[in-house]
Amino acid sequence: MTLVEERAVAAPPPSRDRKLRREWGVANVFSHGFLVLWAVLTTFPLLWVLVSSFKDDGEILSDPFGVPGALRFENWARAWTEAHIGRYFFNSTVVVLGSLTLTMLFGATAAYVFARYEFRFRQLFYYLFVGGMMFPVFLALVPLFFVVRNAGLLNTWPGLMVVYAGYSLPFTVFFLSAFFRTLPESVAEAALLDGCGHFRLFFRVMLPMARPGLISVAIFNFLSHWNQFILPQVLMQGDESKQVLAQGLASLAVSQGYEGDYSGLFAGLTIAMLPVLGVYVLFQRQIQSGLTAGQLK
Amino acid sequence: MRHGKYPLIIAFLVPPLLLYGIFVLSPYVQAFQISTTDWGGYTADANYVGFDNFTRLFRDGQIWNAIQNNAILLAVVPVVTIALGLFFATMLNMGGRRGQAGVVGVRGTGVYRLVYFFPQVLSVVIIAVVWREVYHPNNGLLNAALGAVGIDGPTWLGDPRFAFWCVLAVLVWSNVGFYVVLFGAAMQAIPRDIYEAVLLDGASRLVTVVKITIPLLWDTIQVAWIYLAIAALDGFILVQLMTDGGPNFSSDVIGLRMYNTAFASDTRFGYASAIGVVMFFLTLSVSVLALRASRRDRIDYS
């Protein structure tokens, strides 16, 4: 199909061009094959989960490939209430709202100071912050558990919020201080000459100018906080009613496996997947560039 | 003009520093200290034992088994993921029609890029549970598909021959999309006229990829390599949720060893921290090695 269309569009080609086009026509069919194959590999398992969430257990067991006999939204309702997916969703939202606010506030202020002000030990503090990116979180797990417990924050949402924020600061400070450094010096100097204080300069001038960078890093942190598993697993062991979505899904997978309630499991997975995928489809450009920008810097 | 900057520096820097120092830096420092003790539980006292944990660790067969699996992940995952990522990114950004622009993407580039990135926005927990069901021996997608063509599929995650490779495949699956987009963004930054010049000189597409695209992308590939290596040294969530290291430790990884030593059946915090320290040095040396190796290559090209 592509071949025909290309021919139709092209002007009469010189001979070498035709040879090249033929070479690339074949390669196109070939490469499109791989592209389609990977697209199917990526979407099919997710689509299968969505379709299976409408089946009843009999259909899932006897014909995993088949189409559901009816749209059984009761599976979703069961997952939402009985398997507490709704509650876990709420918990995740609360925790992420808090941790994201903390991360952005602390990350932006620290990055701004590192990027625009001279002071003693600046380099030392900066590398102390940014060095945290290099360490595997596993190393900190055991002492972290006791630090959080001694602070009285074990099994609490504020505990999760400060810990998420702490472990996001290295990347956030690294990314944002690079961003603040690119903002023009002259604007800041002019504002200071006009009698603008340092605090007002930050909130009224610098923050608005840094908006694209702030959005990128906020998206990045949102996804990583929302998908956090190991930290809540260690710090939110006791109180099941406060657990976040990732934990809830993991325990749902275990318990539904025992009970054989596969339709409930698939419905739970779908409920957890769809909002994130929906938001992603809407904001794909920003999300993709937000997630890749940090690596390219 | 510089008047009054110190109140701002203090107000802006001290709260983040406190938070970071208490919840990030201090645990890391303590971990090194705990790794030299025999701390074994919530109430028991911790005695200083020097490097005992580390000598025991080097004789621990289970640890070596886990490290070996991580080594396989380290050797396979970055290579396969980067190769697939480069291949798809090349197709999407310059595999298309030879128009006047010289190099353009294939049709539907946007759709592919959208779809490939799906696993990146999903939580690893969702990915692990989805694939556990895909691999399910009786009602899983994979064996249903195999059954449709008359093949009796194995019990994938329950079979020591396959379990580890099943997890490895998911690790690759979940990462490729990100690198397609990352490499794609880097390719877009390459000036078009370089390609036009080389194509006018009659170079084939394969040659342009090998001689132009890859060298110009080398910095990005190097970053990708480090990120994937760190991911390969971890692998904890996928393994814990898909196989829990089994069957018979065939898919165990070092992160799971550490987690189980500290938080599962026993609470040997000293020993677990020693495993953490080993992981730390492994991660560090892998990143340093990756930087070194790729830097040498970069000089060759430029």
Plain-language structure description:
Chain A has 297 residues and is mainly α. Chain A folds into two domains: 14-62; 74-293, Orthogonal Bundle (MetI-like fold), CATH 1.10.3720.10. Chain A is 79% helix and 0% strand. In chain A, helix 5 packs parallel to helix 8, helix 6 crosses helix 8 (157-182) and helix 9 packs antiparallel against helix 10 (198-209). The model of chain A is unreliable at 1-14 (pLDDT under 50). Chain B has 14 helices and no strands. In chain B, helix 3 runs antiparallel to helix 11 (218-234). The longest helix of chain B is centred in the N-terminal third of the chain and has 34 residues, at 61-94. The model of chain B is unreliable at 298-302 (pLDDT under 50). Classes of the chains: A mainly alpha (297), B mainly alpha (302). Chains A and B meet through helix 1, helix 2, helix 5, helix 6 and helix 7 of A and helix 1, helix 3, helix 4, helix 5 and helix 6 of B.
Features:
heterodimer; A: 297 residues; mainly alpha; MetI-like fold; 2 domains; B: 302 residues; globular; disordered C terminus
Quickly give the structural class of chain B.
Answer: mainly alpha
CATH hierarchy class name of the largest domain in chain A: Mainly Alpha
Helix fraction of chain B, binned, reads over 70%
Specify the biggest β-sheet of chain B.
none
> What percent of residues of chain B are in strands?
under 5%
* CATH topology descriptor of the largest domain in chain A: MetI-like fold
| Extended strand count of chain B | 0
* Low-pLDDT stretches of chain A: 1-14
Order of helices and strands of chain B: HHHHHHHHHHHHHH
Fraction of residues in H or I helices of chain A: over 70%
Distance between the termini of chain B: 46 Å
Number of helices of chain A: 15
The CATH architecture designation of chain B is Orthogonal Bundle
Outline of chain A: globular
Domain count of chain A, please report it.
2
How many angstroms does the end-to-end distance of chain A come to? Answer: 40 Å
Radius of gyration of chain A: 26 Å
